[in-house]
Specification:
The structure is a single chain. A hairpin with a 2-residue loop joins strand 10 and strand 11. The longest helix is centred in the middle third of the chain and has 24 residues, at 164-187. This protein has 316 residues and is an alpha+beta fold. The chain has eight helices and 16 strands. The protein is 26% helix and 27% strand. It has helices at 14-25, 51-58, 72-80, 96-99, 122-128, 164-187, 221-230, 300-306; strands at residues 7-11, 30-34, 39-41, 46-48, 63-64, 85-89, 106-110, 133-140, 150-157, 237-243, 246-259, 269-271, 276-280, 283-291, 298-299, 314-315. The relative contact order is 0.11. It has a seven-stranded mixed β-sheet with strand order 5-2-1-6-7-8-9. Strands 10, 11, 12, 13, 14, 15 and 16 form a seven-stranded antiparallel β-sheet that branches. A two-stranded antiparallel sheet has the order 3-4.
Length: 316
């Protein structure tokens, strides 16, 4: 006999919206949505609602926005909705008093093939590390990060020029499909879980920091290329540009690589009327889209129309 599901959905960014939309479109009963509190953002510091909140409001769903997940009023409100299943997509770590509440458990959608790439930035790290495949996983939450019993997985190829942005969109759709399959399995009592094996060789996906995003022009050409695309469009790779005695930071969004033997120092800029390339070991990184401080993102051809590089310009 099929279970009568009463679902709480937890999520914050756009990545989670596709899954919530799919759950509703498949006729499942979402009794409430938990998302992050509104935050000030932008130059005017106006209060900003999460993508999930905006979507949930439009659908008329009850919304909870706890600052603390152990807050008594939040827990009372959550219990009052009487959920028997919770679905988590791109939210924060839950205390046991929350994930242990529903009868049929709390499961999470993670954007990797667990146990590889546990952590906050699995999409970025898969590309940074040059993976040719990745995927999505659903698993029941336990008291550690991304370690619970595996439910289902779907695999996808990573294209040679894939960016974090394009892979994000592929996994967002793939993940929403996997969540529906997982809910259906729970609903019909056909779930078979698998324990995650522990192996020190599994790759991790820690939170990205500014230092992580700086390009080392002495690194291999493949690693530099992968880092630029793995951090595009957010948070973006960056480098110090030295030009005409001034130093400033620029963001790098898109590039191409070309293997070639040369004797230039890594970081040396090579500028033509239409191209901007950086010498690296075994070749050149051709920059195609960058952002100067205080300016908008632009393609390099547009940049070269109004910006001059001296003969000694280089990246550090």
């Amino acid at each position: 006999m099929a279970k009568d599901l009463k679902i709480i959905f937890m999520g914050t960014p756009n990545f989670a919206v596709a899954t919530l939309d799919a759950i509703l479109n498949h006729g499942y009963n979402v009794v409430g949505v938990v998302t992050s509190p509104d935050k000030p953002a932008g130059r005017g510091q106006k209060m900003h609602e999460s993508a999930v909140k905006k979507f949930a409001k439009n659908k008329g769903l009850p919304i909870l926005q706890p600052a603390r997940l152990k807050n008594e009023k939040f827990l009372e409100a959550l219990n009052a909705l009487e959920p028997n299943l919770q679905v988590v997509v791109a939210f924060r770590m839950l205390p046991e008093i929350v994930w242990g509440l529903p009868e049929y458990g709390t499961f999470n959608l993670h954007a990797s093939l667990l146990p590889n790439y546990r952590g906050a930035a699995p999409i970025n790290w898969a590309i940074i590390n040059g993976e040719t495949k990745t995927g999505v996983t659903t698993f029941f939450i336990d008291n550690k990060i991304d370690t619970g019993e595996l439910i289902m997985q779907k695999e996808v190829s990573v294209d040679p020029n894939e960016t974090a942005g394009t892979l994000h969109d592929k996994l967002m759709i793939l993940g929403s499909e996997l969540v529906i399959e997982t809910i259906n399995s729970i609903e019909n009592n056909t779930v078979i879980t698998t324990s995650q094996s522990e192996n020190k060789d599994y790759k991790s996906a820690p939170k990205l920091h500014k230092d992580t995003c700086k390009i080392d022009w002495n690194d291999s050409i493949e690693n530099i290329f992968n880092k630029i695309r793995g951090l595009s469009p957010y948070p973006a790779a960056w480098s110090d540009l030295i030009n005409d005695g001034a130093s400033f930071q620029i963001k790098l969004f898109n590039a191409e690589m070309k293997l070639e033997v040369h004797d230039l120092e890594p970081g040396k800029l090579v500028v033509t009327k239409k191209e901007l390339s950086v010498a690296v070991r075994n070749g050149f990184i051709f920059l195609t889209e960058i952002q100067l401080p205080g300016k908008r993102r632009m393609d390099v051809k547009s940049l070269l129309n109004g910006f001059s590089f001296n003969s000694n310009a280089k990246m550090l």
